[in-house]
Please model this.
Amino acid sequence: MTGYGRGEALTDGLRLAAEVRSVNHRFCEVSARLPRAFSVFEGEARKIVQDHVSRGKLTLVVSWEGGDESGEPGGALTLDERAAERYVELLRRAQSRFGLEGTIDLRTFASLPNVFTWEEAGRSSEFYLELLRDVVEKATRDLIRMKETEGEALKRDLVARAGLVRSRVARIRERAPERVRETHERMKERVRALLAGVGEAEIPEDRLLMEIALLSDRLDCTEECVRLEAHCDHFLKFLEEESAPGRKLNFLLQEMNREINTIGSKSNDVGIVEQVVEVKEELERIREQVQNIE
Model:
């Protein structure tokens, strides 16, 4: 589900801030943008977020508030003379060996990797790693608190909708036996109409009952209704007992849709079809909400 979290830490009068934003996503994807001093710890920062969140597309932004013009907490840009000399030596050797033309200009020189390096002002890598862990943990916990608040409201909505599905399935179960009796009467009326011109011929009751039994077996949706009600019970159980029920609920909804589709295919009754349509609409609303749950 969507959410936002922020964490801060103070050091030497500077404030390091971390922000985590989350939007709905089927899996867990974390992108990170960190200051130069923390860039080597990007994997560690992403892991902290992933340890707390199992689903969602998350963006982690860590930044200094204060510092020099570059937004960094201080430090100096230096020339690595040994690396520069080695580059020049090798380039001239390659020029002589392969007969290459041209000269080494300033632009080419400045673009060579690791010629210029940024030296931080007396800080160890352990210092920056601990500072980063602190602010990312705070931001992630803040995100989780926001998602838990939203999750409680979402849970209440899903419980109510699951209750509506169950009540409509109960109406289908109540209507199903009446439909069989009505079908029996309609078949008897049709047989009477067919035999009307044959004088005193009687309705073959045994044969009629056999046809009714075969028809009622094809139209019987009791088994599907029982399974659908059981799925509703499991749905509510997962909401109450699972810490991260999103994937289980998503799978359960697929099974619920399969059962209601089977009931719909067996229905030739207006009352039952109306309930099937309502259940399918409710399941679609539930499916949209379940995508927000981890």
Summary: Strands lie at 3-11, 14-23, 28-33, 56-65, 76-79, 116-119. The chain has a mean pLDDT of 82. Helices lie at 42-52, 81-98, 106-111, 125-195, 205-219, 222-241, 246-266, 270-290. Residues 67 and 123 are 15 Å apart (CA to CA).
